[in-house]
Amino acid sequence: LSMLLCLFVGGVLAVYFSRKNYNPIRDIIDKFQFSSTNVKSNQNELELIQSSINEIVREYDTTKSEIGKQKNFLRNTFLLNLLKDTRLQMEQVNEGLEYFNINFSKKYFMIMLFCIEDPNGALHDISPENSEEHVNLINRIAASEISTHFNDEGTSISIDDSGEIVFLYNFDHVFETSYL
């Protein structure tokens, strides 16, 4: 009798602990909401979870890559809106500056607009992969020219706006009017 009681209690405890250990896995599988195209008939639960996590990581990498490609465009749009005074709230301005890692720590600003004549269209044929490099090159040239002429260490940012380049320079030194 004690042997039967021991087997019965052992069986009940085995079923209880098996369910207790399996329920978190079942919850994870339910959260992934597997579609019939993702489920292979020979996959067990752990393989299903692993393939779902791999798919999520791939989607994350793709999304991150797309956001990275658009970040320069978003930065330009933000700075142009800031320059055009589109009535951004100070909180929005601070969040944008922080997000794009822009630090305007100096007291004065100078804004210049460069319109480069390009009759052969060489500048407009730049591929999207090289456009950021192109803007950075112009930024370095303009920053070098300003530093040379005004003998000031400032922060420079260039914004490509439909073929025109807006150059924003943040500095501490007050220039004499003969320079401007």
Describe the protein's architecture and organization.
The chain is α+β, with helices and mostly antiparallel strands and 180 residues long. 57% of the residues lie in helices and 13% in strands. The chain has four helices and three strands; from the N terminus they run H-H-H-E-H-E-E. A three-stranded antiparallel beta sheet has the order 1-3-2, with helices on both faces. The radius of gyration is 30 Å and the shape is elongated.
Main attributes?
single chain, 180 residues, alpha+beta, 3-stranded antiparallel beta sheet, 3 strands, 57% helix, elongated
How are the secondary structure elements laid out?
Layout: H1 2-32, H2 45-83, H3 90-99, E1 108-115, H4 128-150, E2 155-161, E3 164-171
Antiparallel strand pairs: 1-3, 2-3
Helix pairs in contact: 1-2
What does this entry show, briefly?
By secondary structure, the protein is of the alpha+beta class. It contains 4 helices and 3 strands.
Return the structural class.
alpha+beta
Helix and strand sequence: HHHEHEE
Please summarize the sheet with the most strands: 3 strands, antiparallel
What is the averaged pLDDT score?
A: 76
* Beta strands, count: 3
Low-confidence stretches: none
